[in-house]
């Protein structure tokens, strides 16, 4: 099956610094990538959708200047949390979707990144 | 608005059968997914239904009724490792996934 990697898996940073999270599709070309965050015992919350070569579409309430998304190629998307604060501490998960195949729009999830801001 | 409803938590016994229900209201509909998520891990794909009926895959089966906006995930011969959250997600007219809050399934020996 399709594999998505995410790096780093865990990161601890100080308040005010920026953190970059990478999401890669390893064996397929991802035309669309999604970034989610998840708080403990809560469901996934979609932050933004990105298509290769175009600007990301952010969900309502998500600050685009704070959460910078770059979908540089068909296999790589990055999320940069700028000027991180403790309330940004969360589990960030990316997912990737390749071109629609046989009507199936399955998303393949990365393993997630646990961000802790101190 | 768009909405997915599923129970918050369920408890079942090892070896038994459990059914997790999901109702959805979306702008258009292009299918329904079930994902399994263990604590601290990303979701993993379980099933996809776009036509009415039951899809069976080993110990797990998923059912869809488009006219009722209803789906269920059926888990048979429960094992302790099935303790996880089960997420229902509907694909809307824009092919975006609308997520339910998840059902935490607790398996007791």
Q: If you had to describe this structure to a student in words, what would you say it looks like?
A:
The complex is a heterodimer of chains A (118) and B (109). Chain A has strands at residues 4-7, 10-13, 19-25, 30-38, 45-51, 57-58, 67-73, 76-81, 90-98, 108-109, 113-117. By secondary structure, chain A is mainly β. In chain A, strands 2, 4, 5, 6, 9, 10 and 11 form a seven-stranded mixed beta sheet that branches. A four-stranded antiparallel beta sheet of chain A has the order 1-3-8-7, with no helix packed on it. Chain A is globular. The N and C termini of chain A lie far apart (37 Å). The mean pLDDT of chain A is 90. Chain B is mainly beta. Chain B has strands spanning 3-5, 9-13, 18-25, 32-37, 44-49, 53-57, 60-65, 70-75, 84-91, 97-99, 103-108. In chain B, the strands form two sheets. In chain B, strands 2, 4, 5, 9, 10 and 11 form a six-stranded mixed beta sheet that branches. In chain B, strands 1-3-8-7-6 form a five-stranded antiparallel beta sheet, with no helix packed on it. The A-B interface holds A 34, 41-44, 46, 49, 91, 93, 100, 103-112, 114 and B 30-31, 33, 40-45, 48, 50, 87, 91, 95-97, 99-102, 104.
């Amino acid at each position: 099956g399709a594999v998505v990697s995410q790096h780093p898996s865990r990161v601890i940073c100080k308040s005010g610094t920026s953190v970059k999270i990478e999401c890669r599709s390893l064996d397929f070309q991802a035309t669309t990538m999604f970034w989610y965050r998840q708080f403990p015992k809560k469901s996934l919350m979609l932050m933004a959708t990105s298509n290769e070569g175009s600007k990301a579409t952010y969900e309502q309430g998500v600050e685009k200047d704070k959460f910078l998304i770059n979908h540089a190629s068909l296999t790589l998307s990055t999320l940069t949390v700028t000027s991180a604060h403790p309330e940004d501490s969360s589990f960030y998960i990316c997912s990737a979707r390749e071109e629609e195949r046989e009507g199936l729009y399955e998303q393949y999830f990365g393993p997630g990144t646990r961000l802790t801001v101190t | 608005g768009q909405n997915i409803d599923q129970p918050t938590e369920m408890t079942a016994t090892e070896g038994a059968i459990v059914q997790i229900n999901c109702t959805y209201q979306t702008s258009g509909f292009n299918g329904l997914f079930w994902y399994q998520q263990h604590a601290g891990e990303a979701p993993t794909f379980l099933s996809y239904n776009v036509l009415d009926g039951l899809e069976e895959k080993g110990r797990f089966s998923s059912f869809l009724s488009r006219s009722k906006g209803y789906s269920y995930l059926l888990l048979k011969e429960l094992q302790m490792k099935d303790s996880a959250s089960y997420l229902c997600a509907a694909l809307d007219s824009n092919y975006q996934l609308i997520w339910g809050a998840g059902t935490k399934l607790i398996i007791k020996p």
